[in-house]
Each structure stands twice: as structure tokens, then as C-alpha cells.
Amino acid sequence: MSTIAVENRSRTGATDEAQLNASFARQPILNRDGMLCGYEVKVRAPELLAEALSDADPDIADIPEEEEQASGDRPGRAPTPAQRAASAIIRGLIEGNVRGALTGHPAYVDTSREMLFDDAIQRLPAERFLFELSPNMAVDEELIARIIQLHGRRYRFVLDDVTQPNETFAKLLPYAEAIKIDLMRAPAALLPKLTSVLKSAGKLLIASGLDAQADFETAQELGFDRFQGYFFARAQTSTTRRVSAPRHALLNLLQLLAGDPTVAQLEAELKLNPVLVMHLMKLANSSGLAVGHKVTTLRDAINATGTDRIARWTQLLLYADGRKVALEDDPLLQLAATRARFMELAIERLPEAGRDEADAAFLTGVFSFVDAVFGGSLESTLNVLTLSRPIQAAILQREGVLGLLLSTVEALENGAWDELAALCVQLAPLTVEELAQMGLAAGAWAGVADRSAEGLERIED
């Protein structure tokens, strides 16, 4: 998961529509084949309402919610706190580099009533953004009219966080393209009938809250079309993930790279594995490593790429699915690459962190769920990789600064904003907003990792 922050603070401390903060977090959504097909965009905006309330007209702040909804758009009326928050969120989606972190996939955005009535929402491309409607949203004729109007402009709607049908669900169902059902909270006895009826009505079904392979398989059997949760990053007891090269070949190459090998040693190891050679030749001829002519020999490819880039490429390739799919659509590789890059960016902002610490942070991130590939014990796999004790302690026990950063990126992936804020106390001078911006950069970096060498080398400040 990546996050994005938009920040505009006034020098005087005053708060208005252009001076509110919003942060966003992305959570992967997979299709029935287990490939990425979108991201949910989670919004963090507690400061928006607090700051808006502190500076709002007292007469406006005291208006009851129902009256506020009815009169909020009245000409001449100052915007309510919720409307200010909505404007800041939409501006963040438009002006922030959200789409870079989405890596070409559509975004499912948590949407409030105020956001729907803000005309700026129509600046979001309809083909790239779907609006999620809360089951607690107040539904009246005015809202239905607005949804119909936006639907006419090709915007799509998703009923979010459904556990069982209620009045809001019934009123919004005709306008929804997709229904998101929390598989962990919905009554199990209700699910077969509910999903059958919704499928018959032509609705796309999205299962959320999937944290284990068994949950994913249950949702598949029920006929769900999309799946949200980190089940794909968990170790499996019965099966292991297919990888794009033999596991022993990748491990042998990683062990060799750890010992500062010669070009001749690397060439000999790579020649044993045609799949690895194919990937390396592609990497060496990418635009980011262009040397003025086409690389045609393995030795030239090694020299053009360099051992540092080969090491990073091999680490990421460990997570690549064995099926012939674009790496930007591979959820596990994208998660590993984003996590590793985020940790590297974050540690570089901490006092007294150098190149060695940055390398250790990247390794900690990239190998933190290697058991999802190999199955079995995470500890035993880490021992095979001969990782240093601080890295292993960070992954296994969350010890040290590396362990703290690993807990931080996990909080980002889950959109656990309160936990992230608490961790920032130990990560001074880093703030939630700065970490959010790093998450954006990490997600964008991961999205181009297979298309050019730029995705496999550090982006220096």
C-alpha cells in the first residue's frame, strides 16, 4: 500500500478551503486470477474537520446536521466544515500524484455526501475513479438526483462495507455497479442467497477483509469477482506460489551476489538458468540502461547492468508470478517492491543513516514476507538467504529501527492512521504526511520496476 498527502498550511494559522490537509492510502484489489485490477483509496482527514471547526462561523458550526445538509449549498452561505473537508480531499485526488501511485489501475474512492455535491468532483476522470458509498450515508431525493446526474456523466458507484441489506442499501442498489461485502462481518448463512441475488441482478461483487487463502477460496466459491485483503502475501501450508524462475536458482544467485562475485562467476551461474538470462537481457536493453547499442551477450548484460541492480532485480523477481503477466499487475511483487522502497526512503530521512542503513532497510522490506513464496518457516528461509542478524531480528521480532520502520509500512498498508501517528513519535522528525508522500513515491517506483532500469535503482534526492 502507498499513501499520499496534500498539505497547504497558512503562515498565519488561518484555515480555509485551500489550507486543509488530506492523506490517502491505497489497498490492492485483485481479480479472480489473483492479479491486480484496482486500488481502494482510503482517506485520512481528521485534521480537516478539526481545523475547519476551529475557524468556522459559530452560527454555521451550530447548525444541526440535517439542516446543514439541506442548506449547505445555499448561495452566500459559507462552506460547512464537512464541505471544506470534501473540497480538500477532491483537490488532493486531482492535484496530488495519486494516479502515479495507482500504476494504471482504477481507484475506488471512499466518498462522502459533500464530495458528491462538490462540482470539482467532475474533474476526476470517470474511467479512472469509482465512488464508494457508505451504508450510513443519508439518502434523500436530492442525493438520488445527484447520483443520477453523475451516472449520466459515466461515473460509477460502489455500495461499500455491506454486511446485510438495510434501507440505505435498498435505496442505492439500483445505481450501484458493484457491491462490496465484508466477508468477515456479514452473516455466513446469508451470504449464499445474497450473492446469488446480486449476481442475478448483474452486480459486480467485491469481497473485502480477506486475510487468508481460505477466505479467498470461500469468496471465489460464492461467485465474487473482486477480492480485497492481504491473503496473497501470507505463507501457504499446502501450496507455494509459482515463481518466474526455479527457487533454487534464485536463492543461489542471491547467495552468490552477497559475496561480491566476479563477472565470470555471475556469468557461469546465470548460464544455468535460461529464464534468468532472458530477464537480465531485457533489463540490460531497457531505456534506463541504454549503452548506445543493443546488448547481445550475457557478459555485456552483466557489465551494463551492474551487480547492485542485478541484486535488486533478483530480489524482486523472487516474487514474480510464474504466469506470463505484466509485473505491474502482480500484487505480491508490487507489495514487496513498494515496501522495500518505502523503507529505504524513510531511513534516509533519519539522523545518522547512511548507505549501509539504506541497503539494510531495502532488504528488510523486500524479504519481510518471503515465506509467501516458499511456504514453511519464515525464519528458516531467512537463514538460507544469509541475511544479517539486525535484518532478521527486524523481520521476525520487529526489533530496532528496521523493525520500527517495518511496523510503520504495515500500518500504511492497512490504513491504520492512529497507529501510524503513534509510531511517528519514535520516528522524529518524520511526520504522517511525510511518510504518506514516501508511500506515494514508493508505489510509483514499484509500478515501473519492470519497464526500465529506473525502477531498479535508487532515486536520489
UniProtKB/TrEMBL annotation:
Residues 243-433 form the HDOD domain. GO terms for molecular function: cyclic-guanylate-specific phosphodiesterase activity. The keyword Repressor does not apply. SMART domains: EAL. It is an enzyme of class 3 (hydrolase). Keywords: Hydrolase. Transmembrane segments: none annotated. It comes from the Bacteria. InterPro entries: EAL_dom, EAL_sf, HDOD, RNase_Y/CdgJ. Its EC number is 3.1.4.52. PROSITE patterns: HDOD (PS51833). This is Cyclic di-GMP phosphodiesterase CdgJ. It comes from Paraburkholderia rhynchosiae. The gene is cdgJ_2.
